[in-house]
Amino acid sequence: MISLSLALCVSAFGSLCLGMPRHFEQVFKRKPQPLAQRALRWLGWLLLGLAILPAVQALGPSVGLALWASALTIAAAGQALLLSYQPRLVVPVSLLAPLVVLPLLAA
Predict the structure, then answer these.
(1) Domain for residue 12, yes or no?
(2) N or C: which end of the chain has fewer CB within 10 A?
(3) Per-residue pLDDT tens for 14-72?
(4) What are the residues whose beta carbons fall under 8 Å from the beta carbon of 20, sequence distance 6 or more?
């Protein structure tokens, strides 16, 4: 469950950074449409909210929220490094992070 929270945070920060015109242009080499930009921002905030649930469910509210804050920090740092060095990887990493974790949870 902890890994799911981290994966959702990675996806959320990927979506939030692509919701910014500067980073969208950096990744896709074109300007974003206003509707797509707004949708990416909403999706990012939604995923950040959803990332709280697995952490709190696994460890309770006090430790779960602290773990979520740690996952936020790790995910934000990871996305910042991706944007700095390999901006083209932001989309694949953001999409694949939860998909990689889900089979691990089923096992």
Answers:
(1) yes
(2) C
(3) 999 999 999 999 999 999 999 999 999 999 999 999 999 999 998 999 999 999 999 99
(4) 37
Reading the block at residue 59, the tokens are 């460890």
77 part of a folded domain: yes
- Determine, yes or no, domain membership for 105: no
Q: Does residue 16 contact residue 90 with C-beta atoms inside 8 Å? A: no
pTM flag (> 0.70): yes
Q: Is residue 104 part of a domain?
A: no
Separation CA 10–CA 100 (nearest Å): 12
57 Cβ partners below 8 Å, 6+ apart?
1, 64
Q: How many domains does the chain have?
A: 1
